[in-house]
Amino acid sequence: MKLIMAVVQDKDSNRLVNALGEGNFRTTKLASTGGFLKEGNTTLMVGCEDEKLDSALAIIKDNCSQREQMVAPISPMGGNADSYIPQPVKVEVGGATVFVLPIESYFQF
Ligand code: 2BA
Ligand code: 2BA
């Protein structure tokens, strides 16, 4: 058995949970925050049998879209802020960032 931890954008999360449900995958949705953008995102936990892993990953891939986002950089610490003109930086926000972990034990008490 595997545990999929998928960090996805909030706007994709409902569609993804529904699609995984239609594929008979059980999910747990966690509210999370990205360390870089400091914005909300969604982390989904999906516990699944090894042989269904590829199918789950395909559903995640199909239901998460990439987008570009402009980020205002933080002004330099201790520097002369007068001469500092912040240039927004473009970052590409996934899709989905997916971790697959082996499950040692699985209990439902
Ligand atoms: P929920 O997904 O809201 O599911 C609540 C209960 O509904 C489940 O209780 C189960 O009895 C039933 N259920 C869920 N999906 C079903 C399905 N496809 N067909 C028939 N019945 C279904 P529990 O199994 O005790 O799960 C409680 C909560 O634990 C779940 O809430 C979910 O948040 C989490 N969970 C359970 N299995 C999981 C897994 N494989 N991966 C990730 N999260 C899981
Ligand atoms: P955030 O940390 O808010 O990152 C949002 C996007 O900003 C990232 O998109 C990436 O394009 C960019 N980014 C992040 N750190 C950067 C850096 N040090 N320099 C330049 N650009 C940077 P994604 O890579 O698609 O990640 C989306 C979200 O997935 C992340 O939100 C974070 O919550 C999670 N994530 C990504 N990689 C992770 C990892 N290795 N471990 C844990 N969470 C991760």
From TrEMBL:
It comes from the Bacteria. Gene3D superfamilies: 3.30.70.120. It holds the Pfam family CdAMP_rec. InterPro entries: CdAMP_rec, N-reg_PII-like_a/b, N-reg_PII/ATP_PRibTrfase_C. PANTHER family: CYCLIC DI-AMP RECEPTOR A. This is Transcriptional regulator. It comes from Oceanobacillus chungangensis. The lineage of its organism: Bacteria, Bacillati, Bacillota, Bacilli, Bacillales.
